[in-house]
Amino acid sequence: MTATASRVLVLNSGSSSVKYQLLDMTDGSRLAAGLVERIGEETSRLTHHPLANGGEARETEGPIADHESALKAVADELSADGLGLDSPELAAIGHRVVHGGLKFTVPTVIDDVVLKEIERLIPVAPLHNPANITGIRTAQRLRPDLPQVAVFDTAFHTTMPEYAARYAIDVETADAHRIRRYGFHGTSHAYVSRKTAALLGKDPSEVNVIVLHLGNGASASAVAGGRCVDTSMGLTPLEGLVMGTRSGDIDPAVTFHLKRVAGMSADETDELLNKKSGLVGLCGDNDMREIRRRIDAGDARAKLAFDIYIHRLKKYIGAYCAVLGRVDAVAFTAGVGENAAPVREAAVAGLEEMGLAVDASLNAVRSAEPRLISPEYARVAVAVVPTDEELEIAQQTYALVSA
């Protein structure tokens, strides 16, 4: 890394998309951001936002055959703004990698050995790790001289004690097949728990926080003194809260029952629980704004879906209060957590005896800044803390390559 290199390109490669941000780590500012969608289709689209000079977003449509073509298109857009991948100011490329198992507990410079281990984890992250690997390999071909760093979604949760991470199944079988609770959204939980402590004017080591990452995917974590001690997602991102299209917690015997009475295969059950369940399975919509609109119009099915969503959320808040013993704050984050005031209000309604309450006027405020929405008398702070996974990945990447 040259002395002047202070920029990090963050890549989040999905199966048919690439999200990216270019950040300057001298001040954490964003120079550019964008999204390539529908890779491999005739209707591919690249939306690029040149943030450094306040320029207007540019959008191009047309076939983008693969991830290599997508990243080359991203490089062209950045070059048009004078921010090309060949810039000597680019210090590293940071990659979001969903599953790092138990081996990867910190950001890691990627080499062949690391890539092989990420490949070995594909059976426990079949939807995500292959796409992450594709993005890494493509970036390596474009800039073979540049450090590529993997930042793992699971890393923050590797501090869970064994009694929280293990399932109550035969130990030999579990170990042979890596079956345990890994947790996900770790970069978000790490960032938000630290920001919540700062909002309270305390060091993270002094604060116990329940983080509720509520988006289309949703997860909860219990963070004691800056360390995760429990989380709702498990071996895969299916376990836990009700999500946009995922069921969350379910009796495992449902899968056996569906095989016996409906003749459903493992793949069909997987499709049902991951893509046709959750809010969309309950009411046909996974957009909380539309669900609230339907509730206001008297739609009973949407109301039931919302009530199930909130009931599960309350159960996890209560469970993590018990796990932590002392709770200093509950922090809402991600798309739903940051923007859906009715979800926040309903999630803590009736929990006053546990020290939780929401001030209606504070809760109604929309802001991009971290803020408290609990009344002054509340024993437990309730906060809205916008997450910034890209900044977290960039900071971890830059710290590693600088060191």
Name the helicity range: 25-40%
Structural class: alpha/beta
Average pLDDT over all residues: 94
Give me the count of strands: 14
Poorly predicted sequence stretches spanning 5 or more consecutive residues? none
Order of helices and strands: EEEEEHEEHHEHHHEEEHHHHHEHHHEEH
* Amount of beta strand: 15-25%
Task: Outline the structure in words.
- With 403 residues, this protein is an alpha/beta fold.
- It has 15 helices and 14 strands.
- The chain has helices spanning 67-80, 112-120, 129-142, 162-165, 171-176, 186-199, 253-262, 266-275, 278-283, 288-296, 300-324, 334-339, 341-348, 360-364, 389-402, and strands at residues 7-13, 18-24, 29-37, 45-50, 58-61, 90-97, 108-109, 148-152, 208-214, 218-224, 227-231, 329-333, 371-372, 381-384.
- An 8-stranded mixed beta sheet has the order 5-4-3-2-1-6-8-7, sandwiched between helices.
- Helix 1 crosses helix 3 (129-142), helix 10 (288-296) crosses helix 11 and helix 11 crosses helix 13.
